[in-house]
């Protein structure tokens, strides 16, 4: 068993586990479940945690270079440590379908999918988390899901009306995470849009672009290679060239002799 084989086997089960977690968590928080049903939803979320933890440990064990794998899979560790990040695993399913486009366009399309999906997941999960933290707390003004959802939209867009705000420590921690995520997503979308505009503006206008020094050096090197690969004149060719000039030389000599006469 190698990393690629394991990832193919566990891809869709992990996506299903992510969906199961967000459904169970949403049901538990929005309906404010109590008793056996709440315990059932808690069990579902616990099972998803076990699945993600087992996947992380197995991937680490079968990795060829464990330290390199650990450094390049920090997100997988965060998914295990921070349960509300598990629904972000669903974003990978959005980019499974590939289209026949350029690499730059495919990258921008993927970035847009991830940015839009991240916004939706962050708003939804943070709305649930802040409601779970604030509901019933002394002095809290976020008491139902509609209020927490409105607060999440206002916060992630960095508007901050202030009509709803968290008062508990956990609620404020969720707010910090949501604000940081909103700023990051705005930056990514802005950079992607700017890249698209620059590419469209430069399309079909290559003659107006200024050549760089690197391009000039590359062109000079190509010309030098072409010149070096040209066939060199042979001795026979030189003699042929001299022979071809013989009639003209003879004519000049004849003209000189006629002038003497």
Topology-level CATH name of the largest domain: Helix Hairpins
Q: Could you describe the largest sheet, including whether it forms a barrel?
A: none
Overall shape: elongated
N-C termini distance: 104 Å
- Radius of gyration equals 35 Å
Alpha-beta classification:
mainly alpha
**Top-tier CATH class of the largest domain:** Mainly Alpha
Assembly state of the chains shown: single chain
The helix/strand order is: HHHHHHHHHH
Strand content: under 5%
Summed over residues and divided by their number, the pLDDT gives a mean of 80
Percentage of helical residues?
Answer: over 70%
Number of separate helices? 10
Task: Characterise the protein shown here.
72% of the residues lie in helices and 0% in strands. It has ten helices and no strands. The longest helix is centred in the last third of the chain and has 34 residues, at 169-202. The protein starts with a helix and ends with a helix.
